[in-house]
Structure formats: C-alpha cells, structure tokens
User: What shape does this take?
Amino acid sequence: MKQKINLLSYLVLVMMLTLTGYAQDNTSLRIVRGKTDTVFARSHFVIGVAEPGSNVYINDILVKQYSTGSFGTELMLQHGDNPVVVRVVSGAKEVSDNFSVFYKQAPAPQPVKTTHFNSPVVVTKKGAYLNSSSGADRLGGNKMNFLAEGIALELLGVEGNLYKVRLSENRTAFIPRQFADVAPFGQMPATSISSSWSVTNAGNADRIRIALENRQPYLVYRSVDPNQLVVELHGTFNNSNWITQYRNLNSIEHVHLNQIGSDVLQVVVSLKDKYSWGYSVDYVGNSLEIIVKHTPKVLYERSRNPLAGLVIGLDAGHGGPANGAVSPSGIKEKDLNLDMVLALKEMIEKKGGKVVLSRSEDIDVPMQQRGEIFRNGKVDLMVSVHCNAGGNPLRPMGTSTYYRHIEYRPLAKTILNRIMDLEVGEFGLVGNFNFSMNAPTDFPTVLVETLFMSSLPDEELLASPKFRREMMEKVLFGLEEYISEVRKSL
Ligand SMILES: [Zn+2]
Assistant: This one.
C-alpha cells in the first residue's frame, strides 16, 4: 500500500514538472539563475532566456539579449526584500516574471577559540632586516634580506642588540631589536595556508601576488645561473592550485613552487633577461608582492648613446661633520668624493643621461635617506664614490669596486676593469659587501673606492684634480661598456 502511494506521488510530480516546463516554453521566458529566496552577497546575477529578438527589461532597465535568447544583469541588492521584475516584450506580446530576493548580511564568523601561545612573539617594524648570525664587523653583521613590517615571529632569545627569532620549524635568524616590538601576551606567530597566485605586467615591472592568510617571514635568494629569484615563505603550507601568468610578461619567464619543508613554501621566479634591474619583496595586505623591474625601455633604442635617457644615481660619501678618511696632508675624503661625483655628473649629462645626487653640497645625509632619494628619483642604477683608508702607507694600495648582490657583479667588475686602465694598483673586486648603499635590491648598485687616502703614493694621485677627472672618466667608460653589454644581450 505504501509503495502504491509513493508511486502515485511520483507520477503526480512528473506531470506537474512536465506541465510547468510546457508553461514556461509557452511564455518564452525562463529565469535560470537568480530567482533565489535569500542571499548573503550584495552582488546578485539574474540570468534568463526568452524568445530571441525581444526587448528584455529587468526592473525597467533594458538589458542586452544575445542571439541565443539569453540575457542577464547584475543587481546590487539592498538589505531586506528586493523585488525583481523581468519583462519581455516581443512585438505585441508581453510576458513577465516577478519575484523577490531577500538579502541578509552573512552571519559573523564564529570567533576562533583562542589558543594561548606561551612563548613571546615579536612583530617586525618598517626597515626590518634579518641577520644570519649574531656576528658583526665594522658595518654590522651579515644581512640576509629586508623584511616587510607587521610579521609576527616567535622570539627565542636575545643576543646583544639582536632578537633570535624562529622563521619556521627548522629555521631561525636574528633581527635587530630596534626593528621589532614585543607583541601582547597571547599573540601567535604567523602561519598561513597559501592561496592562488597571479603574475601580471605592471608597466615598468612584472608583479607576482601570492595570497596568504597572514604576513609570513621570507628569505630571498638570487642566483644568476640558473637566472632565478627564489623567495622562501616560512611558516607557510602550500595550497596554491591556481597560478595565472599572462603572456605579456617582460622580466619574468615563469614561476613555480616547491614545498621544501613541512612549513616552507619555495617560490621560484625564472627570469628572462641576463642583466638585472632590480626587484623588491613586500606585502600588500596579506598578499606577498614580488616586483621584478623591466630593462629600461631606452636601452632598446640602439641608435642612442648607451647612457642616453638613463637615470643614474650618484652618491658622494660622507659630508658635513662626517669627514670620512683624512689624508696625511689633511685632505678630507668627503671633499674629494663630492668633487669627483660632480665631475662624473657633468660627464654623464653630456652623454644624455640624467643624474640624481644624494648630496650636492657639504652636508651629511643619513644612509636611509640616501636610499630614499634614489628610490624616489627612480634611478636605473647607482654609483657610490668613496676613498679608502688603511694598510701600508708607503705603498700604492690601489683601487677596488664592491657589490653586495651577485646580479650586480658584472657592473662592479666592468668599472674596476676600466679604472685599472690607469696606472694604479688593484685592491680587488669585493663581493657580498655589507655597505648600506650596496644593500638595496631594487636598483643595481656599485661602490667605487677610488684610492687610499692613507697611502702616500695614492694620496699624491688623489690630490691632483686632473687625476680625479681621469678616474671619473674611467668610471664613465665602465658604465658605457656595461650598458653596451646589456644592450647586446637584449
Ligand atoms: Zn668613505
């Protein structure tokens, strides 16, 4: 008996559905999406189909109907009831469908039960960077990379003026105490499950955005063979199953990822150009943003002088109360640096280049501010000019150039080669150098330590305005040669 009733209701249901279907065909209007009782999103799509060639109005606004008969619109709902009237006019015939959509704000998520974290946590401040050890020398300890602000890290201890922090299960590092605040009790160190990525051309740079739940600490590695930028996201668990890469990328060949530890996600950015023009890693909200600059457009105009159209930052070391080194006869390094930088400026401008100076007079400018001047001036590359000191005062000590990041080695090497065309000693090409003006990754940098203030033979050369000019001419030739090499590689 029971089965019979069930069969009967089934038949009734089938008949009803068939009838309804027939009725809809007859009116030639069918709403296929959006006829919903209650929704939790303000944006609401109404999609339907009607006899092709009709005029379709949704809430009295004419909407586009496609040749298939399909039409649709997006409504912005008000809180509460939203009446929707879909009207189809086809010749003298008119059909309509009225319904109502109730918009309710999504219920607030249930507060997550707070798990108290017993170890203290520190949160990074603007300008923060990581050191790989608690060691130090004249210019501070070995820096790994800068770190964005607002990153919460487990505090493991204090060594001198450094916090020892945990980046992930098996990785620790040090952070200067002035660049992190101890968080209120109970705050957890950040962990995240990663989400989708997008890689886009942002005009003069390519941009990668990786959605995370929190701001995670990261380590950045650059290699030139293979030509890659690698960013390790610590405390991060991979669930990035969607990586959009557009075809118009300029500096990025492709990106991919590896979960290299239980909580370390490695972001591998394969680069197109042999020569690098800078990159940066930062956060926008909780999304990690990696920017890789394009080769300056002017370099593709081969008819021009290599330096034409480029913006070159020139940094004269020291100034004001900071004399730098002082020679045996009393010459101050700050004066020679400025004199040489002004000469080089004139030479670059003659070649059609633009110059941004960190100082043009006898004043001291703090290192951080010098970096800002060059960043704001959008320099394509930067040369810092100093004179050296130390070693044997009776021997020529020679010239040297310095880079911090491996991708800028060719720049430092080419300039050293050209200076060595002069009859001066060689003090060498110095890598991984911890000088603040070599620290930026967002533009190429080179430090030129012309000669030694403390060496009597070097001092004699430096004291000659003609020699100083010759030396800057060699720096200019080095720059031109470097840019020519870059052009050849394009
Ligand atoms: Zn100096």
Observations:
- Residues 317-318, 324, 333, 386 surround zinc ion (CB under 6 Å).
- DSSP finds six helices and 32 strands in the chain.
- The first helix runs from residue 2 to 27.
